Amino acid sequence: MEQIVKSVVGLLGTTSSKELVIFIVSMLPILELRGGILAAGMLNVDMVRAFFICFFGTILPVPFILLFIRQILDWMRNTRFVKLVRRIEAKAEEKSKSVEKYKTFGLYIFVAVPLPGTGAWTGSLIAALLGMRFRDAILSVFAGTLTADIIMCIVSYGLLGQLW
């Protein structure tokens, strides 16, 4: 992930503000706020500013994913991207087993743990495919994103080291 973030920062860093680069990285699937916090560290942006930029960058696509991903996938099934749709749905189905049992709390935990393959994008996809209520899904994803942001800032900015 670090190499991808370096590439994006290198691509955008010369023409855009640090804050915009962090915001864009945070909006990207797979990278999300984990990549945004990493980019903030590379660009020497203070933790509080990075925290809010990454949070808002990560949650911006969430309502759109929850509302429109099923229609987008249905449309893509009738195009040459049908294999991609099958892969996306298979991956979401595989990961949804951990969410399905506990519903909104399971979704919160899934999004809150900042590991590869978890996060707001995947959590929103799972919620949409499971047919969760919009309100429950968005609250779980927002709370999970906030928790993951706190965890990433503590780890990335070395707050644990300063406490001990």
From TrEMBL:
Pfam family, one: Sm_multidrug_ex
Keyword tags: Membrane, Transmembrane, Transmembrane helix
Keyword Transmembrane helix among record annotations: yes
Organism of this sequence: Caproiciproducens galactitolivorans
InterPro entries in the record: Sm_multidrug_ex (IPR009577)
Record's protein name: Small multi-drug export protein
Transmembrane segments: 20-43, 50-73, 105-130, 137-160
